[in-house]
Structure prediction request, 920 residues.
Amino acid sequence: MQKTDLLDKLQEIVGNERVSASAAELYCYSFDASQVRGMPEFVIRPVSTAQVADVVRLAWEKGIPVTARGAGTGLAGGSVPVEGGIVLDMSSMNRIIEMDFDNLQVVVEPGIVQEKLNLALEPYGFFFPPDPGSSAMCTLGGLIANNGSGMRSVKYGTTRNYVLGLEVVLADGTVINTGSKTIKSVAGYSLTDLFVGSEGTLGIVTKAILKVRALPRERSVLLASFENPELAGKAVVKVLSSGIVPSACEILDSNIIDAINTYDPKVGLPRAGAILMFEVDGTESAVREGIAMIEDACSSLATGIRAATNKKEREEIWAARRLVGAAVSRLDPMRTRVYVGEDIGVPIKEIPRMLHKVSEISEEFDIPIMTYGHIGDGNLHTGMCIDVLDDKDWEKLNKAADKIHRTAISIGGTVTAEHGVGGARAEYLELELGKALDVMILIKKALDPKGILNPGKMGV
Amino acid sequence: MQKTDLLDKLQEIVGNERVSASAAELYCYSFDASQVRGMPEFVIRPVSTAQVADVVRLAWEKGIPVTARGAGTGLAGGSVPVEGGIVLDMSSMNRIIEMDFDNLQVVVEPGIVQEKLNLALEPYGFFFPPDPGSSAMCTLGGLIANNGSGMRSVKYGTTRNYVLGLEVVLADGTVINTGSKTIKSVAGYSLTDLFVGSEGTLGIVTKAILKVRALPRERSVLLASFENPELAGKAVVKVLSSGIVPSACEILDSNIIDAINTYDPKVGLPRAGAILMFEVDGTESAVREGIAMIEDACSSLATGIRAATNKKEREEIWAARRLVGAAVSRLDPMRTRVYVGEDIGVPIKEIPRMLHKVSEISEEFDIPIMTYGHIGDGNLHTGMCIDVLDDKDWEKLNKAADKIHRTAISIGGTVTAEHGVGGARAEYLELELGKALDVMILIKKALDPKGILNPGKMGV
Prediction:
């Protein structure tokens, strides 16, 4: 089929104004926030499930790759069309279809932005807990495709825990529904769980039934300072294994502390080898109890403990945490933060060991590594900054990232706790998953025998 | 292959004393607690993953069905070998391999009994939350295969929420590992979630990494009485949508109340159209707050509210709840409780409607239906008793159960919230799941192309 014929057919399905084929527009869809690149041939902006199904069916017939994209905030190239073909920009399908608070549920289209959903829920006293750093931009479809999470997953879990059901367009254009509004069912395989986190390689999500939670009445924040990250890691093991469930448990190492204090001096984080930021939410008395228990658990290991006494101070602390991504790049104006090897996860009790290994790797490859992240989940974000015009810096970065990945795997961890595999980390899946990767490939072949859905991703 | 040759080979793998082929022994494996029946040719009691893998590989080569079985407490025939072949009795693989409390995890073999695991955890201050009525007998393997839950799932979720990783023997005898001790990972499809709840049709679980939780410091129980089940259902919607998370939320209808009071008069449940039993757990103050909030939410709908003032009263109330299964059969000595159509689930806000429909169905088919169950999850157990020697009673029972199933599906519910599909409910999956059933079949064919794993179950 000629490209112009295909363009005609696509325009027939979604209308002329919803198809892009100009080089300038295509370029905008050729990357995300990772180093993965790939140029699409067409970008389609569907407005309905029927349009998605028709486009996918056409792609199936012609054997053309189809890659779904939300806001393009991904850090692994999950939405980048590495084998060309069609990009489905789902951002126009962004409605809240139903607010069903008697069932503690909402039904949404995948293009809705996380923060917009939460702004719509807030007046009713509810929220959707998964809160990645990109909340202000990322879409629910992206969260579902990557099983996204964020700071509060230590208490609230990941996106998976909030997806009750999905409408999915399969590789041949068939539309199926998985799950339902019934919160507990064992009728059949958990296809919902299979599609969540499959990064658009098995189907394209066009609708989701999500659980929401009642907003907590109260929150409180505690900062604990430590001589070094390993001691902070030990404190985390102690807090969590004593049964406390904080609503956030974050680590900032000394470089990150400096970066934040440099970026915004009025934040004034205490100087320390590492800081743990704990948040507890719930009723007033539960929060008071939780904070006291954390203080108690940390006291023998910390050099200082400071509780946020009021809402303003609490918000300043979280604002500081949210600055990290931007602040990292401010440490040295000649260097740029590059997202490679940045999302490892390890078992909780291996955190001190992994933190120690990271500092060894930093020395070995002579590259500064700043560590922050959701330490309460064992999820560490290792930030590396390089001169992006220097090939040797790239080499150091890639070698350090490779070693970080292999070290995480060797101690029972993962190369990606929340950012996704995409094209960036696919090469490690065989090492991490072993023969389970073969099962993934069998499933991929069964559901997408022509391999048109987001090819080149996740090692399948 | 001759049956005697096969027997020789099986004896070679597991030793003579771990193979049964006598009619008397085989009979014991031909049923569970449902109406599904099927006679195996061999029963094997493996003690290691290697033995399971060798048996499955042999079965794969010869095309012989293999059905795994835990304690046989299932209510849907999941462990019944309806197409004959080999039953793998997993109850000898019952070790706790590791207690890893720094990670809040345990590693177990599938044959361990739920209650034994919890007794082993208790001295350390931890527990494994899923608690089906059969806790004293059922195995973890059965819980995993069925994604079992029970009374506390309204707060703690189902077995799925506690399985971090599995060792699984696939249809051809390959052993894979899914997941790990790392609590958050997005590296690959969630195969763990695919195997959980797949009832042994995709692989046989030989090891599991499970999350455990710290035992709550305090519990409290509240009984609320209502004029009828529909009003109780409305109270449940009100409690849950106001953000309260009780650790149990159970309903007993008037028949069940009578049955319990008849079975054990000293329990002395209040006579009412329906009773809701709420439990709240957590810290002392959180429990006090939770109970007060539930009391408040129920006050305008209930005819009476009674809080258990001490541990003894609380335990008596739960003992009464646990009596239900036995008590149901005491109402009429000529009738026997039959587990058919007993496990529907509906969206929370449809509970009052479903309860009303159940009473209509009871009248239409002239069969008493007693309702109890985990109403906080929308999960209703409908108990029917018949004279099992009377064909007409069976006919009424089956018709009523069929209508209960179809009604649940028609209002967005499920035919099985926690007991499983097995052979008992497979016929409803197409109606409930639509084209998603085709995806299940594709996955089944991809992972078990010869169809040897638990054939005749789940509609695949």
About this structure: Chain A touches chain B through 89 residues (CB under 8 Å).
